[in-house]
Amino acid sequence: MKIGKISESVLKRSVLRQLKTKNENVKCGAGVGDDCAIFALSDAEKLATCVQEGVICIPQKEAMQESIFPAESVMITRLIHRCVNNLAVSGAEPLAVMIALLLPETIEEPQIKAMMVEAEKACNSLSLEIAGGQTRVSSAVNAPVAVITGYGKIEGEDYRTAKSAKAGQDIVISKWIGLEGTAMLAKKNKEQLLSRYPAYLVEEAAAFDRYFSILPEAATAMKSGVCAMHDASEGGIFAALWELAEGAGVGLTIDLKKLPLRQETVEVCECCNINPYELKSGGCLVMTCEDGKGLVAALEAEGIPAVVVGRLTDSNDRIIRNEDEIRYMDRPRTDEIYKL
Q1: CA–CA separation, 163 vs 289, rounded Å?
Q2: For residue 153, what is the enclosing H or E element?
Q3: pTM of the prediction?
Q4: Where do the CATH 3.90.650.10 domains begin and end in the chain?
Q5: Which of 211, 225, 317, 319 is most buried per CB count within 10 Å?
Q6: Tell me, what DSSP letter sits at residue 56?
C-alpha cells in the first residue's frame, strides 16, 4: 500500500466493518469525520480520547530518518498538537496525554531524553500532563515511532461530532489551507526555493508551523453557534470536507475561489508541482453552522481569519464550483506531500 493513511474504502471495508461490539457508555466512536471517541462518565461529564501516531525525528538523527521516510518523519511536538486539535474539535478541554515509543536498536539514551524533553515542553505550553505510556526497543523498526493518546473533558452534552452537521448549514474555514504542508515543503526544499524566490518568502513559508493550533478558533466557535468541526490535516482541505460530509451523511457545494490560500503556499506548491488542495492543512479548521456570517464575524473579532466557502446539502453529491465550471469531488487521495 501507499505511504500515508489507508484509503477510505479500505478503512471502511477492512477496519470499521470488523468492529461489532458495542458499549452503552461509548457515546461516539472514532471513524470517518470523527477523530475522537467520547465516553459517558456521568450525565454531567464526558471523556474524549484520540490517538495520533508517527515516525519521529530526533536530534542528530533527522538526516538518517529523512532518507528512509522523506515525508513521514515529524517532531513529537507535532503529534501532541494534533491530538490537542482533535480534542478541541470535539468540544473537549484537553487534560493529558500518554506516550508510547517503539524505538530501533540504534537509538541512544540521549536521543530518548531529547524526545521526552521536547514532549514535556510542548505539554507544558498546553497545560497538559504526560500521564504515562510505554517505551520499548524493537528490531522490527528502523526509526522511532510514537503513539500519542490524548484525553479531554467535556461538560454535560456539549460535544460535537460529524453527525451534528446537517443539510442547509454554512461551511466556514479558518485561517488558510495547506499551512502544514507548505511549512514542510519549505524546510525540505529550501535551496530549490531560494533559487527561485526571495529569502523572506521562503522563511515565511517555513514558519507556518506557528499557525498549527486550532484551539483559539475552536473555543470561539463553541461559543458562537458552531454545529460541527473537523480539523483539516492529511489529504488537505478536499479530504477534510469529504470526511465531514461523509461522517454526517450529507452532500456539499463549495466555491473553489473562496478557499483561502496564502501566496506563499501558491508559490511553494507551484515550484514543487504540488496540488495545494490535497496538501496537509493542519492549522485550518472546517466548521458548519446555521449562520456562517455570524461565525466569521465572531472569529474575526478574535483576530482569526475566516470565510464562508459553501453549504451542506441534502444530496450525496460533493460539488466544487469554479466560476462556471462544476465538478464532483473525488474520494480522498494520498496526501500530496508523499510525492516527494
Answers
A1: 13
A2: strand 145-155
A3: 0.89
A4: 162-339
A5: 211
A6: B
What's the rounded Cα separation, in Å, for the pair 151 and 28?
14
Look at residues 206, 239, 158 and name the one whose alpha carbon lies nearest to residue 197.
206
Place of cell 478557499: 259
Distance CA 87, CA 198 (A): 38
Residue pLDDT, tens place only, 279-310: 999 999 999 999 999 999 999 999 999 999 99
Fold classification of 162-339 (topology level): Phosphoribosyl-aminoimidazole Synthetase; Chain A, domain 2 (3.90.650)
Count helices and strands (H / E) in the chain: 11, 13
Task: Say how far apart CA 148 and CA 51 lie, in whole Å.
Answer: 6
Residue located via cell numbers 462518565:
41
Mean pLDDT of 135-156: 93
CATH 3.30.1330.10 in the chain, residues?
A: 8-155
Overall residue count recorded for the chain in this entry: 340
Its CATH class, for the domain covering 8-155, is alpha beta
**Are 138 and 124 contacting, i.e. CB atoms less than 8 angstroms apart?**
no
Residues 6+ apart with CB under 8 A from 66: 57, 73, 188
| pLDDT at res. 66 | 41
Residue 169's SS3 state is coil
